[in-house]
Design goal:
3 domains; mainly alpha; Rossmann fold; DNA Cyclobutane Dipyrimidine Photolyase, subunit A, domain 3; about 50% helix; 21 helices; five-stranded parallel beta sheet; binds flavin-adenine dinucleotide; about 450 residues
């Protein structure tokens, strides 16, 4: 039996390949985990992407002569109920590494033993599995550069060959099984035309193919420029496994000038291996810096709603709310603003991001926040991003700001980065909620190291 989790694809899916090798038609299961659905930081846009991805997966499985069963409830109990019902003795699943994912597997393994059911965990959620690379002294890598060196020089597994339909011929696409569970998911999901991204492997593969044709070429030059919108937007597809990270990495590495892009994929793997070694880093400081955080719900609200009076910060936060996506440069600037200028706990920001991001991912999000906060791996607690300098440097013409802040749409000069009091008053754009330099002095005073 195959249990899909966040590997919602038929292409290069080692767990699915193994399940496919068994006798007869293997059962294909996805469980809507009630514990995850009850989390307060659930994003309705992310659920919409998930529901599209499940429909798409079912269509792809239909072409192979199989179909998807969707159950809802306690994850390990539901997996076992289905396994017993179909008489499965082997369960194949992609391995995963958050504290919660690990505990789910352990429960399933322990409860399966008594019923004669074996659980097989396979690679597939990263290019390189977290436990494959170890530094000389053991444990995990805590610094990216040596990790990236090993990651680049190590032998990756081979991309799996496409699966062949069972029973000789392909069946046409058909409706997903246990439709009421999908309807339950759809009721929670936000149907929105705001987001430019459609869930599922089919859309992911199309995006990959377009990207290889036209996107990757200038990536290194423009990836830091939010107004260009020139990054791949693979993140949600990678998070839900609609694209295989290995397949992407192999395809990209065959292109010229691919190092910068591969480096970003390696960051994703790096954070996953950090989490595998320190599962508590999703909520605890990876490195303790003795921060005394402010608790100020008013400034937190101004930040969350894009009303801080710093245009690049506000543009990023409004893009997040509107699209369920934010450009990487703006994630860094907005996160830095919350943690350094407002001196607020990174966990508040990470939670807010998770409530909105379609690509919301425990490893990349929590450790990305810790990287900015200076409590994570590889980080420099003294690194400060000045929101106005960042704006001048990375959105020099203010095009990204104009796009997301309609109040400033008519400002067609360098003033867009820091509008005068007159412009703010006339346009209804708020004053700055803090003085950057004073705020940074306060932040430093509130940190022990
Ligand atoms: C505070 C903060 C929070 C973040 N939260 C998330 C998150 O929840 N989910 C998420 O996928 N990424 C997160 N990132 C990383 C990064 O911002 C996004 O992966 C990227 O913006 C997605 O856009 P893209 O797919 O167009 O990226 P591209 O630039 O096209 O990069 C290709 C892929 O590489 C990976 N990648 C790129 N940059 C990073 C990075 N800094 N760290 C880890 N992986 C990276 C992603 O999988 C991405 O899809 C966060 C970064 C910061 C600073």
């Amino acid at each position: 039996m195959m249990v899909f989790t966040r590997d919602l694809r038929t292409s290069d899916n080692p767990a699915l390949v193994e399940a496919w090798k068994g006798i007869g038609k293997p059962t294909m299961l996805f469980v809507l985990d009630e514990k995850l659905l009850e989390r307060p930081n659930l994003s309705s846009k992310r659920l919409r992407f998930l529901s599209e991805a499940l429909h798409d997966l079912d269509r792809s499985l239909g072409l192979l002569g199989a179909s998807l069963v969707v159950r809802k409830g306690d994850w390990s109990s539901e997996v076992l109920v289905e396994a017993v019902a179909v008489g499965a003795s082997d369960i194949h699943v992609s391995d995963d590494f958050s504290a919660y994912a690990t505990s789910r597997f352990q429960r399933l393994e322990a409860e399966g033993v008594g019923r004669g059911i074996r659980v097989h965990r396979h690679p597939g959620v990263s290019v390189v599995p977290p436990d494959l690379l170890q530094p000389a002294g053991g444990g995990g890598y805590k610094v990216f550069t040596p990790y990236f060196r090993r990651w680049s020089s190590t032998q990756w597994r081979s991309v799996e060959l496409p699966l062949h339909p069972r029973g000789g011929s392909a069946q046409g696409p058909k409706e997903i099984k246990v439709i009421e569970n999908i309807q339950f998911l759809e009721a929670l999901a936000e149907s929105s035309s705001n987001d430019s991204i459609t869930g599922g492997e089919t859309a992911g593969q199309e995006r990959l193919s377009d990207w290889l044709d036209t996107g990757i070429e200038n990536y290194g030059l423009v990836r830091d420029r939010p107004e260009e919108d020139a990054t791949s937007r693979f993140s949600a597809y990678l998070h839900f496994g609609c694209l295989s990270p290995l397949e992407v990495a192999v395809a990209v590495s065959e292109q010229p000038d691919s190092e910068e892009f591969l480096r970003q994929l390696a960051w994703r793997d790096f954070f996953l291996q950090v989490l595998a070694h320190r599962p508590d880093a999703s909520f605890n400081n990876f490195r303790e810096r003795g921060n005394l955080w402010n608790q100020d719900s008013e400034s937190l609200h101004a930040w969350a709603t894009g009303m801080t009076g710093f245009p690049l910060v506000d543009a990023g936060m409004r893009q997040l709310e509107h699209e369920g996506f934010m450009h990487n440069r703006c994630r860094m600037v907005t996160a830095s603003f919350l943690v350094k200028d407002l001196n607020q706990d990174w966990r508040l920001g990470a939670n807010h991001f998770m409530r909105h991001l379609i690509d919301g991912d425990v490893a990349s999000n929590q450790l990305g926040w810790q990287w900015v906060a200076g409590t994570g791996t590889d980080t420099n607690p003294h690194r400060i991003l000045n929101p106005i300098r960042q704006s001048e440097r990375f959105d020099p013409k203010g095009a990204y700001i104009r796009r997301w802040i309609p109040e400033l749409a008519e400002v067609d000069s360098p003033e867009i980065h820091d509008p005068s009091p007159e412009v703010r008053q006339k346009s209804g754009y708020p004053d700055q909620i803090v003085d950057h330099h004073e705020a940074i002095a306060h932040h430093r005073a509130m940190r022990a190291t």
